[in-house]
Amino acid sequence: MTVTKHVDPSVVSLLQEKVKSIKTRKGAIYLVGPIRLPVNLMGETILFQWYCWLNCDEATEDMGRIIAKLSSANLAEYQQSSVLVHGDFQNADHALIRFHSICHTGDIFGSKRCDCGYQLKQSLKHIAEHGAGALFYLANHEGRGIGLFSKALAYILQENGYDTVDANLKLGFADDERNYSDAIEVLKALRTKPVTLITNNPRKLEALRAAGLDVEDRVQLWGDVSEYNEKYLKTKIERSGHLNEGNGCCDND
Hints:
With about 250 residues, the protein is an alpha/beta fold.
């Protein structure tokens, strides 16, 4: 026998206007926000508006039903991504966006094996200085989409001579397993005007344009080069096709 949980109507009322349902072919994306989020960015507190989204196989506008289902689900098994929005992202004539793939080792621990932590902080800095923009933090993109455990296996292969591309391939994955469809749907819900994408990765540009979005410009983001990540950065350019337009990144030969 299935027991239907009762959800306090006052709670439903508080949350109703803060949750948006975005219908997809497989169900719906539930986007919650905006939520005021003051962020410590390089010693300065910058105010962002935070959104979080969850991809579900059921589409409903019944907020009470959504809450009831969440309380009985193991959400730790789901990947829940975020958006940090700054300024008048919806209406500003020009806005920066960054599709940032989660990097447990770089973003959290400050690993120097990659440039992810640097790119995260610099993207937020660019967006804050520009005045309007959004950083999409994509939780299911660890290790270019292969997951944290597989990324650890890939690191062992890298320590034995494989580059980042071959390490993924030897484990049975593609060089890049990432998919941007959910993030694109959320972007469409937050803004319809053109955007400028902060990226070195042409695949992100292609994904946005293939979805019909107007990308008016691109801002490259290189830096934090060291002995620990120089090979990694060269592989991005030479094998993964990342765009390096004469800024001297890794050009020590």
